[in-house]
Amino acid sequence: MAEKKGRILCVDDEPNILRSLSWLLQREFEVFTANGGEEGLALVAAHDFDVVISDQRMPGMMGSEFLREVRKLSPRSMRIMLTGYSDLQAMLRSVNDSEVFRFISKPWKIDELPAVVAEAASIARHHPEPDAVAGEASARASAAGVESLLLIDDEATLAEHLRQELGSALRVIHAQNIGEAVGAFAENDIGIVLSDTRVGDVDTTAMLRMLKQQHPGIVTVVYTAGTDAGEVVSLINQGQIFRFIPKPVKPAVLALAVTAAGRKRQQLKANPELAGRHVVVEIDADSKQAFSRNLDQVARQSIDPAAQLPFLQRISGGFKRLFGTAA
């Protein structure tokens, strides 16, 4: 008999869903099931799971609450949420509190779910759990230099408010459009990105997803007024964002999220192998092309002709540094 690829826990209050998951996964994995959060936590306490899969809507304990506790009890376990896109606030809690690895849409594709679970199990087995390296990361972080935070927002006052809230903890670099954002990477070692999902009339999410694909050590915090469930899913699956914050939001709240992102960044710098826990699904070609068109449009419209060439050169340098190719 072939060796199993990992130990998996599936949690759902619907017996037919559990039967379907077991049938789909049992050939490749050792599968445990639980019909609710409390039973699931008891199993997590008794067994070492590589992957924990949970539905969101369950009586007694919601999936986001359950996975938050799993994160505390078994940080090594990769967490996957089954979602029907119906509860946006729960999805945000899954990002901010549970730090899920992937959202899987219901009904799932029969060939997609086993592949995602196999990837997650491999990551859990081959990369260290966060708690095992936290002490080392903290020690190195105390001696590290000040991290650079790139703020992408067309609101002029937000950068100053953040500087006041953060003090000397982080160096804030402000970009008012995606052209300035890409150009900033040509001249700065940026470890944290804080961005609205739309700056002016331009969607920033394609850039944020591409960024994580090429640079998994960069930690991203996103905030937005127009939160959409599908957008949250794509930013996790393709961008592994660290926090997702709905507007309106006070600078002090953003500062708290950014401070937590700074700790995560130091952990990743001290232990680069942890970046393997944040691999992403490849972004589609259409999104890449749309981003390139937006970047070209912004770059040519936002500056006067005399300054255009140096600015375009900065953008080209930043793009190449970020994505390994010229803009």
- The first-to-last residue Cα distance is 51 Å
Number of strands: 12
Oligomer: single chain
> How many helices?
13
In CATH, the homologous superfamily of the largest domain goes by the name: Response regulator
Largest sheet: 5 strands, parallel
Read across the widest sheet, the strand sequence of neighbours is 2-1-3-4-5
Low-pLDDT segments, ≥5 res: none
The CATH class of the largest domain, by name, is Alpha Beta
Shape: elongated
C-alpha-based Rg, rounded: 21 Å
What name does CATH use for the topology of the largest domain? Rossmann fold
Strand share of the residues? 15-25%
Helicity range? 40-55%
Summarize the structure.
The chain is built from 13 helices and twelve strands.
Overview of this structure, please?
The chain is of the alpha/beta class and 327 residues long. It contains 13 helices and twelve strands. The mean pLDDT is 84. Helix 2 packs parallel to helix 3 (63-73) and helix 6 crosses helix 11. A five-stranded parallel sheet has the order 2-1-3-4-5, with helices on both faces. The protein is elongated and about 55 Å long. The longest helix has 20 residues, at 251-270. A hairpin with a 2-residue loop joins strand 9 (198-199) and strand 10 (202-203). It has two domains: 7-126, Rossmann fold; 138-278, Response regulator (Rossmann fold).
